[in-house]
Design brief:
Elements: E1 11-14, H1 22-38, E2 43-48, H2 54-67, E3 71-77, H3 80-89, E4 94-98, E5 107-114, H4 122-132, E6 147-149, H5 153-163, E7 175-179, H6 189-195, E8 199-203, H7 222-231, E9 235-239, E10 246-250, E11 255-256, H8 258-268, E12 275-279, H9 284-292, E13 296-300, H10 304-314, E14 318-320, E15 326-328, H11 337-351, H12 355-359, E16 367-373, H13 377-380, H14 384-397, E17 401-407, E18 413-420, H15 423-441
Parallel strand pairs: 2-3, 2-4, 3-6, 7-8, 7-9, 12-13
Antiparallel strand pairs: 1-5, 4-5, 9-10, 10-11, 14-15, 16-18, 17-18
Helix pairs in contact: 1-2, 1-4, 5-6, 8-11, 14-15
């Protein structure tokens, strides 16, 4: 059965639109609480990123859960993976994050985690949607839920992050620039890396509710690249607004994305890695480089939940998306930007090599990604003219590249990716396909 409200990563929209309104979020909290009660569950933990609308939706969710008889633990601003971890350590039955991840401040969304710190099942999402269609029934006053704030959550999470750093030596001697995207890692990441011994320069650490992801962070890497070069730092690390993505930058300002981070994690550890999971967006060069080292590479659909599903099926630990969602399931149950970066730092220390050297082991094939905003991107994917144009482009590439055209799962966009050995041909084919999409949409 198709889901009505839930997308690939929870529920997300512009504030005031669709489900992302206080009245709807209150009812969503009640509906989720009703499903939890039916399953014998009693406690939920709520965290949020730093966008201004988080206060409004935190209160709405809290009211909805309490009306259903669920106790609520409030964390305040915390990275998404921190909520997943703390949900487990506090033995809550569910974790909820109010965040639109890498989107601008005017968007927001809701993500749900199970008691095991993993994204809730499709089955539970459908149950919540069914409950949402019913009228709210408030439980008797004596059965209402209670709410309280967890004041020591940041300290708990900082200590957990530090415990995942396995290198024998600390980070003394490293100069690192951190870009916290004015988001949920702003009061966590600097402490983690500083307490492990590194000299830290921090940017994007002054959230005002509006500036989250604004020209900074994992989706706008220019600010970090500039800061690393100006500061003469060894490397840079950028997180997105809710802290589940990470991008890194070498001392020369070269980008190290999720693909290269995955390669480093798979090849630099002390234990052999049988295989890893990338996505259909992962660069072909990474797949070939890993296979040359005897490491199997499997592609999932775009979305960290699909990477997670394949990792679980295979019993593997490492997976990633080029956009910076990196899974290290030997350390934490979900994608975590801080912990992924710490594993790379551990590899750097263990190999006694720089990030520049480790990242240079993979030479990406030229790749072009173009986005075009469309109101109905899914419908465009069935357009016969576009399908024919894709087939023609694939013939021109032959076996020396690949093409991926897809509708975004989180935004009203068509994404066109062309990758191959010949940069001029790659750029030309990407332009041709975008031109076709524009023509068919006019």
């Amino acid at each position: 059965m198709d889901k009505k409200y839930f997308g690939t990563d929870g529920i997300r929209n512009r504030v005031g639109s669709g489900m992302i309104r206080p009245d709807q979020i209150l009812k969503l909290g009640w509906a989720t609480g009703k499903v939890m009660k039916a399953r014998g569950q009693k406690r939920v933990m709520i965290g949020k990123d730093t966008r201004i609308s988080g206060y409004m939706f935190e209160s709405a969710l809290e009211a909805g859960f309490i009306a259903a008889g669920i106790d609520v633990m409030l964390l305040g601003p915390m990275p998404t993976p921190a909520v997943a971890y703390l949900t487990q350590t506090f033995r809550a039955d569910m974790g909820v994050v109010i965040s639109a991840s890498h989107n601008p401040h005017h968007d927001n969304g809701i993500k749900f985690f199970s008691a095991e710190g993993k994204k809730i099942s499709d089955e539970m999402e459908l149950e919540v949607e069914a409950a949402f269609e019913q009228d709210i029934e408030v439980v008797a006053s004596e059965n209402l839920g209670k709410a309280w704030r967890i004041d020591d959550a940041p300290g708990r999470y900082i200590e957990f992050c530090k415990s995942t750093f396995d290198a024998k030596q600390k980070l003394t001697g490293f100069k690192i620039v951190l870009d916290c995207s004015h988001g949920a890692t702003y009061h966590i990441a600097p402490h983690v890396f500083k307490e492990l011994g590194a000299e830290i320069v921090t940017i994007g650490d002054q959230p005002d509710g509006i500036n989250i992801n604004q020209g900074c962070g994992a989706t706008y890497i220019d600010a970090l690249q500039k800061a690393v070069v100006e500061q003469g730092a060894d490397l840079g690390i950028a997180f997105d607004g809710d802290g589940d993505r990470v991008m890194m930058v070498t001392s020369q300002g070269e980008l190290v994305d999720g693909d290269k981070i995955l390669y480093i994690l798979a090849t630099q550890g002390s234990k052999s890695v049988p295989g890893v999971v990338g996505t259909v967006m992962s660069n072909l060069a990474v797949e070939n480089a890993l296979k040359s080292k005897g490491i199997e590479f499997v592609r999932s659909a775009v979305g960290d939940r699909y990477v997670m599903q394949l990792l679980t099926e295979k019993g593997w630990s490492f997976g990633a998306e080029p956009s910076g969602h990196v899974l290290a399931l030997n350390k934490i149950s979900t994608g975590d930007g801080i912990i992924a970066a710490l594993q790379v730092m551990s590899a750097i220390v263990g190999a006694n090599q720089s990030l520049d050297e480790l990242a240079a082991e993979v030479d990406f094939y030229p790749s072009v990604l173009k986005n075009l905003q469309l109101d109905d991107a899914q419908k465009m994917m069935t357009n016969p003219v576009l399908k024919s144009a894709i087939e023609d482009a694939e013939k021109k590439l032959a076996d020396k590249g690949r093409i991926l055209v897809r509708a975004s799962g989180t935004e009203p966009l068509i994404r066109v990716m062309v990758e191959g050995e010949d940069r001029q041909l790659v750029e030309s084919l990407a332009d041709e396909l975008i031109t076709v999409v524009k023509a068919e949409n006019s």
